[in-house]
Amino acid sequence: MSLPLPADLTLVIPCYNEADNVRPLIEAVRRALGSLRWEIVFVDDDSPDGTSRAVEQAAQHDSRVRLIRRVGRRGLSSAVIEGALSSTAPVIAVMDGDLQHDEGILRDLVMPLLEDRADIAVASRHVEGGDSSGLANQWRHMLSQAGIKLAQSILPMPLSDPMSGFFAMRRARFEQAVPRLTGTGFKILLEVVLSVPRDTRLIEVPFVFRPRVAGESKLSPLVMVQFLGMLIERGCGGWLPTRFIIFAAVGLIGIAVNLVVSELARFAGADFATGQIIGTACAILANFQLNNRITYLDRPLRGKRWLPGLCIFVVGAAIGAIGNIGVAQLLYDTHGHWSHASAAGAVIGVVWNYAIASTLVWR
Fold it and tell me: How many Å apart are CA 38 and CA 4, to the nearest integer?
């Protein structure tokens, strides 16, 4: 089928390991949108299950289906941003690729935007007529409710379901928000609402969150860490980037690793200096691995890049430690406050390490 240009709507589907859902989702969208001029953009983070291939096969039969395949990058928010920026349609919609979002309400989300009656339309599980029973278990319900309460505490406008991943918005409003989006984490709607002008017109449409049919849930401890980091960043007015907050939290874990390992070495008969060397080495390695898996999940070091990255990280951490000690010693000699001097040295150290990590290690 040829794409009747220009499209009125670009539907962005961020996906990972959703190969079995691609064809049913396209058929469902086709039925729901009917004669509306639309295109669907799947943004696949190089899924190992063949999601990209499934989209390619569908695109051979319908030119309205497009694929963006990302290699070496991960994350729902950044996937949505890339997919939306590939659009020239006046309206962008976002929904998951797992068939849990009800495509039947797409028109209810899109038409108010095309008719200029709203700027953002959110599919909500928490207004009259909505239902979140499709969440996998009670634990997921509790996490969702806690996230909603935290998010609502920093929102500039009323929104019953800021954790929703199903929404539509005018592309012009999205492009206004893009420069202020971090692109980290999985809750892109919350970031968008926090980044658009206060005069943005927002409506909510009830929908029933369906049980998962195929694929796998993307909720993980990492997602929750990124979400909390983003809330802290926004609560601080953007002064502390989400990535820096997570980097600093990983540093605290490194301190704990250092203390535990050095104590174990002491119990094993090592002297103090040897224990400190072993503990520090383990802490640096733990920090590197955790940052590679969490802080810089969207650009992890693999294969031949892993060892050079580790070497640069170690050298940077060593220089940071020297700077930490030097600043702390200078302040202690000048003012005589042990705790203040130690804290200042630690801040200098973490800022230095973050700068090295972001500019030289995970570029």
Answer: 8
Chain center to CA of 116:
30
Per-residue pLDDT tens digits for 141-180: 676 677 777 777 777 788 888 888 899 999 999 999 999 8
The pTM of the full predicted model, rounded to 2 decimals, is 0.73
Three-state SS string over the chain comes to CCCCCCCCEEEEEEECCCHHHHHHHHHHHHHHHCCCCEEEEEEECCCCCCHHHHHHHHHCCCCCEEEEECCCCCCHHHHHHHHHHCCCCCEEEECCCCCCCCHHHHHHHHHHHHCCCCCEEEEECCCCCCECCCCCCHHHHHHHHHHHHHHHCCCCCCCCCCCCCCEEEEHHHHHHHHHHCCCCCCCHHHHHHHHCCCCCCEEEEECECCCCCCCCCCCCHHHHHHHHHHHHHHHCCCCCCHHHHHHHHHHHHHHHHHHHHHHHHHHCCCCHHHHHHHHHHHHHHHHHHHHHHHHCCCCCCCHHHHHHHHHHHHHHHHHHHHHHHHHHHHHHHHHCCHHHHHHHHHHHHHHHHHHHHHHHHCC
